[in-house]
Amino acid sequence: MIAKPPQAGDGGNGDGPSEAAEDAASVQAPHNTQATAIDAEHADTADNTTDTGGDDHLAPAPPRAQPAGPTACGFIAIIGAPNAGKSTLVNALVGAKVTIVTHKVQTTRTPVRGIALHDNAQLVFLDTPGIFKPRRRLDRAMVDAAWSGAKDADVVVLMVDAAKAGEGGRGSLDKGTAQIASALATLARPRIAVLNKIDRIKKETLLALIAQLNELCAFDDIFMLSALNGDGVADFKAHLASLMPEGPWHYPADDLSDLPLRLLAAELTREKIYLRLHQELPYAITVETTGWEAVRKGVRVEQTIYVERESQKQIVLGKGGETIKRLSIEAREDLSAIIEQPVHLFLFVKVRENWGDDPERYRELGLDFPKA
């Protein structure tokens, strides 16, 4: 189950639906699951919302006890260039979707912890934003978070997109990955390089990449795997478990992530936006969960999608509201599967210029607000 966060309080400070949301257009979900309601018409005139007592985390399940005898627990930071497969690997190691994945770079904005068990060891994976040359304030916050996670972890894993390195037969690391590997040389903790997507590259190229990595940093180990199809993931997980320091588990045995469900729900919606909308628009968007209320049949969730310009709002809504309806269906289905109960999802779109310069947005994402 998703780790149960502390009670979220007043339900957020974003804008929520007006009474008109009760008459919102209803979209029937497949297999007779609960419908999703979308109030696109009144999205820009909504009143503030407050929580009405609903709980924003899962009901507790009977806890599994820690195993008898010595236990081990440690933190593993997964770092690398954007779109190297870090989130896919974390989900594969955990065995559940705890972090969103798209084909676009810079999908991960906030560090996400995924929790897995192997024998008597608990492994806490930190899925970090991709490391790249930042251009905006949000970019700087994301890169700072990635390096902070690496410095605080017990083990650091550099994820390398081997398929990208092998494009055109060049067989060399991209500049960004090479710079990250060089920077890791001064980090005094176990360092492991992982060559991902090995099913899409020739053996000779892999050997060339390994030699280049060893020149840049004295890695303790180098693994080759495919996070997407699972090849090599089990062996890698077992090796990481052997490196964990002895000590008590930091999380209950059944927890898969410490991400609050409000934030996970917002991330799921943002994932659908990244997958459905193109070019630069997704990077100008943020999503907030502004309401979470337990109802008779499931959970009522209210979210606001913030964009920077009125023209972007129209793109998110789509002709006749079709785009936002599709986004809502896809996000609700994922969230319902995760929390294992019906979800009534209300989506709204609002213009908030320069939201990327608002310190509150950074706090909600668990990021430090960089100075200009």
Q: Report how far the terminal alpha carbons are from each other.
A: 39 Å
Order of helices and strands: EEEHEEHEHHEHEHHEEHHEH
Strand content: 15-25%
Spans of at least 5 consecutive residues with low confidence: 1-62
The 3D shape can be described as: globular
Mean pLDDT: 77
**SS-based class:** alpha/beta
* Portion of residues within helices: 25-40%
**Quick one: biggest sheet?**
6 strands, mixed
- Number of discrete helical segments: 10
Strand and helix layout:
Elements: E1 25-27, E2 36-38, E3 72-80, H1 86-94, E4 112-118, E5 121-127, H2 137-152, E6 155-161, H3 162-165, H4 175-184, E7 191-196, H5 203-216, E8 221-224, H6 233-243, H7 261-276, E9 286-295, E10 298-307, H8 310-317, H9 322-339, E11 343-351, H10 359-365
Parallel strand pairs: 2-11, 3-5, 3-6, 6-7, 7-8, 10-11
Antiparallel strand pairs: 1-2, 4-5, 9-10
Helix pairs in contact: 7-9
